[in-house]
Each structure stands twice: as C-alpha cells, then as structure tokens.
C-alpha cells in the first residue's frame, strides 16, 4: 500500500532560499516585540513590481494585517514588499490595530521608496494586545539597511517570523522554462494553532518566473488546497493565517498561462514548495516528536478522501497512539467512520507503514514488536484504502505529546 516514486520536472536547490529567485532581498532584526533578543521584524523586498497572490484564513476573527494585505494585492495585483512581525498578532485589536497595520505599511513603503499599496503586512504572536508601535517604528527605520540578496538575509527573515517554532522552514527548487532557469522558493512559520482552512500560519513564496497575478492566484489556491489545507497540529485555525506569493518575472521566460507548454511543470514546482513547507510545519508541531502522514485511497471523490484523511490525522486518539508507538488501528478506522463521508464498512484496508493491520475490514495478525519499532521512528505513514472509487488524498499531522500541553498552558507567560 506504499506510495509510488514519481519523477519531478524540477530540482531541489540545496543551498537555495527565498532570495535565490532573481530580484529579491530579505532581512530581519530584533525590534523589541519579543521579551528575548530573538528577531521579531523582517521583510522581503522585490527590486521590481512583482505579480502577487494571496490566500487567507477563513476564521471569522481576522487580524488587521489581513485587511491591509488584501487591499495592497487587490489594488493592481502587484507587490514590492511584505513586512512581517512576530511576537504580537495584532488581532482583535479594533480600530487601533487597523491604524497600526496601515502605519506599518506606510512607514516601510517610505523606507524603501515605494507606494504604500505595494506593501503587504503580516503579523503573528499573542492575540488581543496592541503593538508597541515605538518599537515597530524604530525597527522599520533600521530594517532596510540590513537587507540583502544573500542566504544570510533570508536566514534573518526566517528567524524574524518564528514564534514557538523550533526550526526555520525554507525550500527552493529550480526548473527550465523556455530555456531559462526559473526558481521557486518559499519560507513559512507555524507550530501551533494549526488547522488551516486556506493556507499556512504565515507563508511566503518568491519566484522569478514571468506569470500574471491572476494566473498565480489560481495556482496558489490549488497548491494550498493540496498542501497547507491538508495539515493539522491541534485543530485550531488562526486569526492570522496568510500565504503570499510574489513573482518578479526576471527569469525572462515567456509569460506562463494555462496554454504554456511548461505550465504543468511550474505548477508541480509550486506545489512541491508548498508541500515541503506544510510538512515542515506539521513535523514542527508544538511538542511534536513525529510527522504523521495519512494517505486515503479508493474514496468516492478526492474531496471525500481529503475529509477522511484530515479526520484521521487530526484525531487526538490517533495522535496519542503515534506518540505512544501503539499500533492501534481501531482508532484509525473509528476516525475514518466519523468523518461524515461515504464508506463501505466491509471493504476497508489499513496499513501502518508496510504492516497490514486490516484487510476488507477484517483484522490481520501482525507482529506487534515489528510495529512498535516502526512507530518509534520520526515519520509514520498510515494507508487507508476504501475500495469504493478513485478518490485519493494525503494529509499530514503530528503526534500529541505532554509538551503540547506544557507549551500552550503558559503561552502568554
């Protein structure tokens, strides 16, 4: 029941970053929003107007920066920069929060000599507290001088967007389009409050491909549905989730449209970048020790498979069993059965890694010691085949540990 190896039309750039695509520079610094000296303000800047796209949280309570970013991208579908702070979500902060987000946009736009509607704003951190704007203003004024197009600049940016994350999350790939080398790169943050219904907690994609904003928006939304929307850590959707993509067009390829011969290759590269970042978020779930991947096949539709896979990977009992290295397939089938999707209760197969535990809904005797050793690893694959139709989907999550409670019991303190 394993997954097939598929040749990809792109290559991983081992030392690549969000500044590898032509035209981008980045940076980060500590401005004082965090109690420690960790970086808490960063930005990505494009030297030319970049085609832009964005997807946002569906939480009814949406942080002020989302309104600002929507307006910026909606103005003409172009961006020159995105400014990000961590340590404070600027969410549920009323009119003052909106004013602060607009001021951040305007001040950074002035600092890099672009119009305000070419700057996006993102925030992450504690909800319900006003920004310390004296600190933010000082940081914005200092930030441009330290930004550059090197890996160091990208690293500083990645540090600046972290909250409870333990690791930075960044990836870059390259491919050939019209004889030109095109790069697609991404960076993200996310560790807790992860159950996106749009994108990641905060995610940023840069590319030097030539593509229009509308085309990029369509690709970004499809990639999101298959990657960021298929992860969960704790079942909570944030007020600040945002994924923004910028395309400088400096690679010099012919403009990408659905009729372009390499459209599928570029879409595959973008999806791969999003998938790597999404899985990195799931693996870095607060307190997590393992990445859990659930692959559902044989569903009545891809949408049905998606709902079942996310229900399984989000089950607290399945997550707890993963932490305890318990091959309890009963928790898997119980989660599948409550997903609210069509399932024939007589035709379900389940495997944990290569260990078959259920065939046609009947238990299979397996070696518990072999299963225990497998489940002690840092990545667990669960396969479910419903044998009903051709729908399939993959979801990612993590185990549920004692540390998750410890971290979130004292998040503000």
TrEMBL record:
SUPFAM superfamilies the UniProt entry points to: DmpA/ArgJ-like (SSF56266)
Coiled coil: none
Function statement: Catalyzes two activities which are involved in the cyclic version of arginine biosynthesis: the synthesis of N-acetylglutamate from glutamate and acetyl-CoA as the acetyl donor, and of ornithine by transacetylation between N(2)-acetylornithine and glutamate.
Catalyzed reaction equations: N(2)-acetyl-L-ornithine + L-glutamate = N-acetyl-L-glutamate + L-ornithine; L-glutamate + acetyl-CoA = N-acetyl-L-glutamate + CoA + H(+)
Enzyme Commission no: 2.3.1.35, 2.3.1.1
Keywords: Acyltransferase, Amino-acid biosynthesis, Arginine biosynthesis, Autocatalytic cleavage, Cytoplasm, Multifunctional enzyme, Transferase
Active site per UniProt: 200 (nucleophile)
Protein's name according to its UniProt entry: Arginine biosynthesis bifunctional protein ArgJ
Residues bound to substrate: 163, 189, 200, 286, 408, 413
Major localization listed first in the record, in broad terms: cytoplasm
Subunit structure as annotated in this protein's UniProt entry: Heterotetramer of two alpha and two beta chains.
GO MF terms held by the record: L-glutamate N-acetyltransferase activity, acting on acetyl-L-ornithine as donor
Main EC class the enzyme belongs to: transferase
Protein's organism: Paenibacillus chungangensis
Upper classification of the organism: Bacteria, Bacillati, Bacillota, Bacilli, Bacillales
Gene giving rise to this polypeptide: argJ
Associated pathway: Amino-acid biosynthesis; L-arginine biosynthesis; L-ornithine and N-acetyl-L-glutamate from L-glutamate and N(2)-acetyl-L-ornithine (cyclic): step 1/1; Amino-acid biosynthesis; L-arginine biosynthesis; N(2)-acetyl-L-ornithine from L-glutamate: step 1/4
């Amino acid at each position: 029941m394993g997954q097939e190896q598929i040749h990809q039309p792109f290559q991983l750039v081992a030392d690549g970053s969000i500044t590898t695509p032509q035209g981008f520079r980045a940076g980060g610094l500590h401005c004082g929003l965090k109690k420690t000296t960790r970086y808490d303000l960063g930005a990505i800047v494009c030297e030319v107007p970049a085609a832009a796209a964005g997807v946002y949280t569906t939480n009814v309570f949406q942080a002020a920066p989302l309104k600002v970013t929507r307006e910026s991208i909606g103005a003409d579908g172009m961006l020159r920069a995105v400014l990000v702070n961590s340590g404070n979500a600027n969410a549920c902060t009323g009119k003052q929060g909106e004013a602060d987000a607009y001021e951040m946009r305007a001040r950074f736009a002035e600092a890099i000599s672009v119009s305000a509607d070419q700057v996006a704003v993102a925030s992450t951190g504690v909800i319900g507290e006003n920004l310390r704007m004296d600190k933010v203003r000082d940081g914005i004024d200092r930030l441009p001088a330290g930004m550059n197009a090197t890996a160091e600049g990208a690293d500083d940016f990645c540090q600046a967007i972290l909250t409870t994350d333990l690791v930075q999350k960044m990836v870059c790939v390259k491919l050939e389009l019209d004889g030109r080398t095109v790069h697609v790169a991404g960076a993200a943050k996310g560790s807790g409050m992860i159950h996106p219904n749009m994108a990641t907690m905060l995610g940023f994609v840069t590319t030097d491909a030539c593509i229009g904003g509308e085309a990029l928006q369509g690709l970004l939304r499809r990639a999101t549905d298959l990657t960021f929307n298929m992860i969960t850590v704790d079942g909570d959707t944030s007020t600040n989730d945002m994924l923004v993509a910028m395309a400088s067009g400096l690679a010099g390829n012919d403009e990408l449209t659905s009729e372009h011969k390499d459209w599928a290759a570029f879409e595959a590269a973008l999806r791969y970048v999003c998938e790597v970042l999404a899985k990195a978020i799931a693996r870095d779930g607060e307190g997590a020790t393992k990445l859990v991947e659930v692959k559902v096949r044989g569903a009545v539709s891809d949408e049905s498979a998606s709902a079942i896979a996310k229900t399984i990977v989000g089950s607290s009992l399945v997550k707890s069993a993963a932490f305890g290295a318990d091959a309890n397939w009963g928790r898997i089938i119980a989660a599948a059965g409550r997903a609210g999707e069509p399932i024939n209760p007589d035709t379900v197969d389940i495997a944990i890694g290569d260990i078959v535990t259920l065939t046609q809904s009947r238990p299979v005797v397996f070696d518990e010691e072999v299963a225990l050793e497998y489940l002690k690893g840092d990545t667990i694959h669960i396969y479910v085949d419903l044998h009903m139709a051709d729908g399939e989907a993959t979801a990612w999550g993590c185990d549920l540990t004692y540390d998750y409670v410890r971290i979130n019991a004292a998040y503000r303190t």
